[in-house]
Design a protein that fits this description.
By secondary structure, this protein is an alpha/beta fold. It has a domain of 122 residues: Rossmann fold (3-Layer(aba) Sandwich). The chain contains 6 helices and 9 strands; from the N terminus they run αββααβαββββαβαβ. The strands form 2 sheets. The chain has a 7-stranded mixed β-sheet, with helices on both faces. It has a two-stranded antiparallel sheet with strand order 1-2. α4 links the parallel β3 and β4. It is globular, with a radius of gyration of 16 Å. Homodimer.
């Protein structure tokens, strides 16, 4: 089966969050059990061999929709799952990294105790646009002497050059959309 079931499940919202932006809403995939299962099955197909060959030995995910795809994958692969949260959401000692937004910047954090030196992470988010958030996530792992060896998103917007921004890490998406 190709990715038509995924494409047909993704809601397009014009002019959100501002005029001229076409927003690809992943929440509609979650309301379609067949499409959600298709995504999880594809993720298992891609990452089970990478666990077996040692390319990855942990999963990290960015708040919040990325958690919904990362958690079942981590369970199926029996890998630890590390949550990357927005600034101020974690109670313990954290590593913090900032990234640029269209107007300003934001910060994400990870518990220092959750990341071990030498771990090889698959980093997951729902949609990859410029790659800024995932690059910050990659830097968080590096602060703990861990490494992001793979990056995954359900949706990719390659016209925004996320692969270049995240190089040399391999980036995999299930569907890419070009243009607005």
């Amino acid at each position: 089966m190709d990715n038509r079931i995924l494409d047909e499940s993704i809601r397009r919202v014009p002019d959100f969050p501002k005029k001229g932006i076409l927003f690809y809403d992943i929440t509609s995939v979650l309301t379609n059990p067949e499409a959600f299962k298709w995504c999880l099955d594809k993720m298992l197909e891609i990452y089970r061999p990478k666990k077996e060959d040692g390319t990855i030995n942990a999963i990290a995910s960015v708040e919040s929709r990325g958690f919904l795809f990362a958690a079942p994958l981590a369970e199926k692969l029996s890998l630890p799952l590390v949550l990357i949260r927005k600034k101020g959401k974690l109670p313990g000692e954290v590593f913090r990294a900032s990234y640029d937004l269209e107007y300003g910047s934001a910060e994400i954090e990870v518990h220092k105790a959750d990341v071990r030196a030498g771990q090889k992470f698959l980093l997951i988010d729902d949609l990859i646009a410029t790659g800024g958030t995932l690059d910050a996530g990659k830097r968080l792992m590096q602060m703990a002497d861990a490494e992001v060896t793979e990056i995954f998103g359900i949706i990719g917007l390659p016209d925004l050059k996320f692969r270049e921004a995240l190089a040399p890490v391999n980036v995999t998406t299930l569907i890419d959309y070009h243009g607005a």
